[in-house]
Structure formats: structure tokens, C-alpha cells
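note to self — DONT lose this again. spent like an hour looking for the file last time. sequence + predicted structure for the chain T wanted, 254 res
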Amino acid sequence: MEVEPGNGQNYIEIGEVMNTTNADDTGFSFKVTNLATTELTVTKEWKLAEGATSPESVMVGVYRTKTKPGENGFVVASLENQYKPESEYFGEEYFGNETEQWLTYELNEGNSWRHTFQDLPKYDDSGNPWYYYALEIQIEDGQVNNSAYRQQTPASANYIRYVSESTSDENPDYTVITDITVSSGATVPASHLTVIRNIGYLDIGGTKTWDDQSDRHGLRPENIILTLKRGLRNGAAVEYEKVEGAERVGQQDR
């Protein structure tokens, strides 16, 4: 017998029928194992330019590792870390997908871009804790480039941030910021949280106008330096990027 998922307990019961106890097969022994569990909550956020709309859905995949995120040897997008529910513990319908398949879930407006994976095994067979996290693997029909993840902030005791470009390196649609948090006691994680933010790109163009009677005095420089500034709304602008050697394309004379 298995306790139904979402029952609010921090374990599930795994039942196993042992050998018969009597010669006439009238008695049976039954072994029940309490499997300690944990959960992973994944939240999706969109940070887009004004007027831009988010895609209808994204797919996230669950990863787990024995190496704490941020510690030496942790590889965030390792194929070996993809979590596939164990067939010896979970039946085909337990997680809503077949066992031995990568555990994934679609986030969309209907579920408020949030999902909690419950009843995840808390320890391996040797009693070592598992660390769970999620990565965005697909935006509608576009695959996310998980091979480009880079660590952005030094890992703290229970938090680490990774950044990647989505879909492709040549023409990325978003910067994907993934915050992995392990809420824990001293060493054993009680729950896990992954927050994924997609920050959209904004194209900015401009035209330089020269009010010098078509360079009448020959003082117009060959090139100029453009400085792009950015800042939060109602905040001070700060220098973001310099573009040197801007070509004379689209210039206007007066």
C-alpha cells in the first residue's frame, strides 16, 4: 500500500508482500517501509518590456544531486542529475507520468506559473540527503540552451544563482536567471525552492542630428561614442554600455 500523494505527511508508506509463513500458504508476511520525503516548489516570473506579452507556457524539468548546489563538483545542467521517479517506489500513475521518465511539468497562467513537486525521496539508500532543483527546459516550442549556464553569485550556505541565455546563442530571446534555494536545518534539506525569471530584451535605436549646415566648417568628427544608460523607474540612471566608432548610418544634416 502507498499513501496517496499530497497527504500532508513527510513520508510515504511502501508496502511489500514477503514470503508465505505457513506450509499451506495460509499466512503471509508484509513489510512496510516509511520513505522520508521532501518537496520542491518551482515559481516562474516574467520581466518583460512594456507592451510585451509572455509565452503561453514553459516546461521545467526536475534535477537532483547528492552534491549541494554551489559546492565543488556540482554541475547545474548535468544529464546525470535529471530526476526519474524510481520504479521500485512509485507506480506509473503516482506522479502523473511514466516511471523511469524525466519528471517534468508545464507552467502556465492557469497554474499561476507555480508548481510543487511532492513526495520526493529525501535520502538515498545510504541515508545521504538529495538536493532537488528545477531548470527551464522549453519555452513553448523553443528549447532552452541549458549548456550555457554560468554561476553568477558566490554560493551561500543554501542559495546559488545561475544565468543562461534561452533558445539559442546567436539570437537569444531572454536572459534566464535561476535561483536555487535549499531550505534546511543543519545538513538535511526540509524543502527546496527554485525561482526562474525570464528577462526579455529591448532593442533601442537612435539617430544623430548635426546642426552644422552639412559640416560647413569641416569640424564634424569621423565618429562618435554613444553611452547607453539604464536605471529603475524613478531611480538614477547608470552607465550600461559604450559603443565606440558608431558609423554614419541614418544621420541627419541641418
